[in-house]
């Protein structure tokens, strides 16, 4: 069975993919002086480049570079040019899983971020439910989760996890709406039944003379 998706392909790229256009590269991946100092602590060229790329991706889109993931060529070149390395050196870095884990651990301290916890997932789900109550748009619901994770200083979970959270939020909201509609219908039905009963009782009382009495005209004696 194919996995259910809530995001359109374009929304998915904008939220989770590494940008490659010049404007985004300059805005997202320009390294500061302190960034370069931290990067220079790595000795080998491929480790410097890998560390720098991981740093950039953990900042935006705010996730960990996956094992074996190769960023767009334009992004590699832009980062490599800033630190004076060869973009092709990244191929050697991508094969070293232990080094990648060590760099991620160091970067979480440097960037003051952490992996998402159960509490972060719960907060993300609550924000998604609020968003789903306002709009059924998958992009809006997922954006609410992403914004909450970033606000809490948590790295984004895997895309599959975020989409499952968004689908759950949409389902919860739909159930609440259905329950609310059912309650309203029951209340309306009960009110209508009560009104009908009162009208029948009033008619019965009137027919046996128990209704409100009319005043008899007074006789005037001349």
Written overview of the protein:
The chain has 10 helices and no strands. It has 2 domains: 14-111, no CATH class; 118-193. It has helices at 9-16, 22-29, 33-39, 45-59, 73-83, 90-94, 97-111, 118-134, 138-151, 159-207. With 222 residues, the protein is mainly alpha-helical. The chain is 67% helix and 0% strand.
Number of strands: 0
Distance between the termini: 101 Å
Q: Give the tally of structural domains.
A: 2
Share of helical residues: 55-70%
Q: What is the count of helical runs?
A: 10
Shape, per Cα inertia axes: elongated
What can be said about this structure in brief?
By secondary structure, the protein is an all-alpha fold.
């Amino acid at each position: 069975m194919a996995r259910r998706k809530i995001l359109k392909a374009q929304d998915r790229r904008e939220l989770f993919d590494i940008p490659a256009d010049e404007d985004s590269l300059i805005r997202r991946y320009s390294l500061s002086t302190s960034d370069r100092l931290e990067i220079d602590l790595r000795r080998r060229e491929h480790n410097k480049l890998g560390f720098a790329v991981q740093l950039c991706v953990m900042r935006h889109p705010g996730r960990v570079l996956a094992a074996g993931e190769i960023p767009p060529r334009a992004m590699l070149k832009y980062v490599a040019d800033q630190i004076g390395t060869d973009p092709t050196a990244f191929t050697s870095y991508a094969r070293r899983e232990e080094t990648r884990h060590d760099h991620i651990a160091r970067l979480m301290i440097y960037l003051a971020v952490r992996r998402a916890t159960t509490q972060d997932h719960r907060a993300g789900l609550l924000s998604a439910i609020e968003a789903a109550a306002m709009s059924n748009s998958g992009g809006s619901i997922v954006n609410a989760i992403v914004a909450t994770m970033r606000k809490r200083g948590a790295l984004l979970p895997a895309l599959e996890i975020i989409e499952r959270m968004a689908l759950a939020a949409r389902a919860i909201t739909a159930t609440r709406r259905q329950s609310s509609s059912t309650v309203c219908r029951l209340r309306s039905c009960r009110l209508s039944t009560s009104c009908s009963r009162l009208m029948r009782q009033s008619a019965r009382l009137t027919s046996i003379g128990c209704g409100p009495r009319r005043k008899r005209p007074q006789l005037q004696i001349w």
